[in-house]
């Protein structure tokens, strides 16, 4: 059973700056020379997460450590939260050093009754406008899944075999999860607190941020294809865990590109569809 709640529509606006120092830290995190970036350069598409962080006060942080969705959210009584997916439309480049107006709102909340209990799907809409342009440079929708407290440990999915041949492997470690979480002001305990991830949420280890997995995808695309993304759409199918190899497979799909991520057991965990200019 699914019920859709009408659009909340409460708009939250913030002033953001695409600061050169922060961009250089993202580059360093990705093992890219920070000195190749300067004010006036275009922010690499996929790096906009530094402009979409929440700024919730400590007293407003959820019990799981998640600092919020960037907009006020009613207490739904659902203590577990995971990223379900996102879609992004890139309309113009964002210059490094530019000032921006960020507009965020809850676009929709859908409630579901499942065999595991109540669930809510929350869709957040973000717009980023450079101050000298009336139309947004970027529009991003993020979908979060909110769930009831875990009553049983998360079962381990059966292995599906080895990762696919020809895939590129990357292994996010504790340091990468910490740096990404810090740059995005994301204190969700499933990414930082191994005991919490295992004992409270029932995961086998720290969970790789959904946004970090997306960033690894967009960086792979940027390096291998070299074309500017105009849209991307991601869907998270299974958790990816710290210190375990992630295999990324990329194929042309007509006028689009399809990227898939597989965990170390060959389980398909994430997919992304990209269009280019």
CATH class category: Alpha Beta
Uncertain parts: none
Q: Find the CATH superfamily.
A: Hotdog Thioesterase
CATH architecture: Roll
**How are helices and strands ordered from N to C?**
EEHEEEEEHHHHEEEE
Reported by name, the CATH topology is Thiol Ester Dehydrase, Chain A
Explain what you see.
The structure is a single chain. With 277 residues, the chain is α+β, with helices and mostly antiparallel strands. The chain has one domain: Thiol Ester Dehydrase, Chain A, CATH 3.10.129.10. The protein is built from five helices and eleven strands. The protein has helices at residues 20-29, 174-183, 189-192, 194-199, 210-224, and strands spanning 2-5, 12-17, 80-90, 99-114, 117-130, 138-147, 168-170, 229-236, 246-253, 256-262, 268-276. A hairpin with a 2-residue loop joins strand 4 and strand 5 (117-130). Helix 1 runs antiparallel to helix 2. The protein is globular, with a radius of gyration of 18 Å. The mean pLDDT is 91. It holds the Pfam family FAS1_DH_region.
């Amino acid at each position: 059973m699914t019920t859709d709640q009408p659009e909340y529509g409460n708009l939250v606006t913030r002033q953001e700056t695409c600061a050169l120092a922060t961009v250089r830290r993202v580059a360093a995190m990705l093992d890219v020379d920070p000195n190749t970036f300067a004010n006036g350069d275009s922010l690499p598409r996929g790096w906009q997460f530094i402009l979409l962080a929440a700024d919730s006060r400590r007293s407003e942080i959820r019990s799981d450590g998640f600092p919020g969705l960037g907009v006020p959210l009613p207490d739904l009584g659902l203590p577990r939260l995971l990223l379900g997916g996102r879609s992004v439309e890139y309309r113009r480049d964002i210059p490094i050093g530019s000032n921006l107006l960020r507009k965020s709102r809850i676009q929709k909340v859908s409630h579901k009754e499942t065999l595991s209990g109540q669930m809510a799907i929350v869709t957040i809409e973000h717009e980023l406008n450079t101050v000298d342009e009336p139309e947004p440079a970027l529009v991003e929708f993020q979908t979060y899944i909110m769930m009831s407290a875990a009553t049983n440990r998360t079962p381990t999915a059966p292995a599906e075999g080895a990762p696919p041949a020809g895939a590129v492997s990357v292994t996010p470690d504790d340091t990468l999860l910490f740096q990404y979480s810090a740059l995005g002001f994301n204190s969700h305990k499933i990414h930082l607190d191994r005991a919490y991830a295992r004992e409270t949420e029932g995961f086998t280890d720290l969970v790789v941020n959904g946004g970090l997995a997306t960033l690894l995808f967009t960086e792979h695309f940027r390096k291998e294809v070299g074309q500017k993304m105009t849209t991307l759409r991601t869907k998270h199918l299974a958790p990816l865990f710290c210190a375990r190899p992630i295999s990324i497979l990329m194929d042309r799909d007509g006028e689009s590109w399809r990227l898939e991520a597989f965990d170390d057991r060959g389980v398909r965990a994430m997919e992304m569809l990209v269009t280019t200019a």
